Amino acid sequence: MRLFAQGFNxxxxxxxxxxxxxxxxxxxxxxxxxxxxxxxxxIAPMITRFLFSGIGIFFILNLGQKSDLGISKRWVKxxxxxxxxxxxxxxxxxxxxxxxxxxxxxxxxxRWTTFVFTMIAVSAFEELFFRALIFSALIKFFTNKAKQDExxxxxxxxxxxxxxxxEENKIESSCSDKTVEVIIDYCPQTKSSNYRHHKANKxxxxxxxxxxxxxxxxxxxxxxxxxxxxxxxxxxxxxxxTFLLGLxxxxxxxxxxxxxxxxxVHALFNIGGLMLAENxxxxxxxxxWTTTGVIVSAITFSIAGIYITVxxxxxxxxxxxxxxxxxxxxxxx
Length: 333
Fold this sequence. Notes:
- The protein is mainly α.
- The chain has one domain.
- The protein is built from 14 helices and two strands.
């Protein structure tokens, strides 16, 4: 296992993310028709997602991201963002539809248990692969690329920066494979070190934003597989909100340095959104959403989404203002 870990860690992060994506596609398309008749087909996705979640955990452990699977002190620091995410998930529950009598719940305990565990399995699988693995690999890829580009080119003179000689640039470039913190602390000090530090922080922020957008887009596009069993209009609508949800889950994961909060929010969102679905077999619904319910949910989504966005941008601003990037956090990613 150690040899596997060493070998896989030497693979370019971009190729790592492609490998993870291919495994995720395999999990979605793996033939499990022989399980489809059990509990209205819910057993099949539950088993396959739990099995592939185990594969995701295997990769996480071998990539040195064990802390992603635990409880972090950062949960307390970002508890407000976690709560905002939970509110978004709760807003996806058909509460008004049920209270106004447009729907009823009558599923058995066994069916409810199967349904909840299926939603947990699906959420765990998607968060492990699309956030802990693909999102993290893309951050490493863009960070390494920006770092290499920065140290390959000589610095230009400007009003805020003294001359930077070829020898100084050559010496600093030899340290470019280390983390930003190591570069600033241990590489030979030059007149441009403060500029380097600020530039490295800015590149790190750019890398995070790019990884957020691309991993969320991949997460959304993976739902195109639903075209095989759902109406095209529903699927293309799903692409839009799954992209936004992907951003939410990635922010939760990045800030808390743990995959558990995003799994919880993701599972709650799926439970609320699918509990009245016809194939769930948990109840009957004349309408799944009422006009009032849609308005209340939209307002909740908007307020919570704006709050999370502002908080995240403030955290990025702190990094850009001069905070050092922790080599320990970078290794986690």
